[in-house]
Specification:
alpha/beta, 5-stranded parallel sheet, two-stranded antiparallel ribbon, about 45% helix, globular
Length: about 280
Amino acid sequence: VIYNFKMIIWLASYPKSGNTWVGHFLASLIYSNQGKTGLEKLGFIMQYPKRDQFEKLVTNFDDFNQIKKNWINSQNLINSDNKVKIFKTHHVLCSLGKDNFTDEKNTLGAIYIVRDPRNVISSILYHFNLSNTEESLNFIQEEEKFIGNVKNKVNYPLLTLIGSWKTNYNSWKVVGKNFLLVKYEDLILNPNTEFKRIANYITNTINIKFSEEQIKKSVDESSFKNLESLEEKNGFIESIEDPKNKKKKFFNLGPKNNWKESLDKKFVDKIENSFNNEMKELGYI
């Protein structure tokens, strides 16, 4: 479908908060007839920022200054085809000097997925090959935290400023335009209700209607169990390697991740102190 306005719907989150899960649901729902199956569908929900989006604009992909100067330029180029896109990102919604991560002209709306940081911490520990929980705590508290620049992939993600868990959440919740907040925990407890809410958001934003049957099929296809078995069978491009170059599971614990059973009280207290306002606001404490 070609639309006569050019814009991006951002699918944003802090890392390991359900962004890929929701991305698969949306890809399954919106692009169901486009011939891709399983985890391949995620190819329709592109990640940002990535190398190919800056190819004509940046000479040194390791230089964050060059990247940030071209956020808007790259989005103007991306949007020049007049099609609506959904972009997955872990970037903070920031302004650095004169450089804005995005702008009104390029943004149609944002879906932000948030997850209890007491569960995020163990997923971060596993996914980023960190050595202990202390290191993982520092990771989620660090304001000038970057990820990306994974060179072993052809079209690799560029340097992405994710900030701390709370800064990432606080930056997106004030996007001010067509914003939907989704809690990871609600997706687990009430998948049908929550995914339907996301489908309604898409309907209201870009006027595509979905039947109950389509929504249910996409919810089933995107269940954690199904994504886990697809990864086991075919591998997954976003999975990472451990220090011995062995592939680690991307879909690891998911709903089974329970901080009450695995997290030392000392770390629970530190997280709750660091992120007190946000966790109260979200009903986590």
